[in-house]
Amino acid sequence: MQIPVINRSHHPLPAYQTAHAAGLDVRANLPEPVTLRPLQRALIPTGLFVALPTGYEMQVRPRSGLAFKHGIGIVNSPGTIDADYRGEIRVLLVNLSDVDFVVQDGERIAQLVVARHEVIDWEPTEELDETARGTGGYGSTGSQ
Question: InterPro entries, alphabetically (predicted)?
């Protein structure tokens, strides 16, 4: 799949880090480092602009290494970039650790995953079909 992209950063385009990776690592495009204090969040620019085809979205997901090693996540994970959005891709990072974290220019801060999605029409009804699970909610399918 070809996706039109404008790269206004001075970094390479997002890339897959292994042959079978689902996500492309995207880098921070910063004029100076950004310090995230504990529980602080910041919108980090990437310098990238894309034109996705209709029927697709781009998901912005946390990087597992940043989450595990530093407690850095994405507030609205996964974030969604819609096919009609033409603005800069920015990543809403949050520091969930108890120490400051400095985001450096060029640092890999998130993964981008392109996924097909459906557009639905609601079908109002008064009843739903029965299933074995029924109305069982959180924690209802496993042991405690």
Answer: dUTPase (IPR008181), dUTPase-like (IPR029054), dUTPase-like_sf (IPR036157), dUTPase_trimeric (IPR033704)
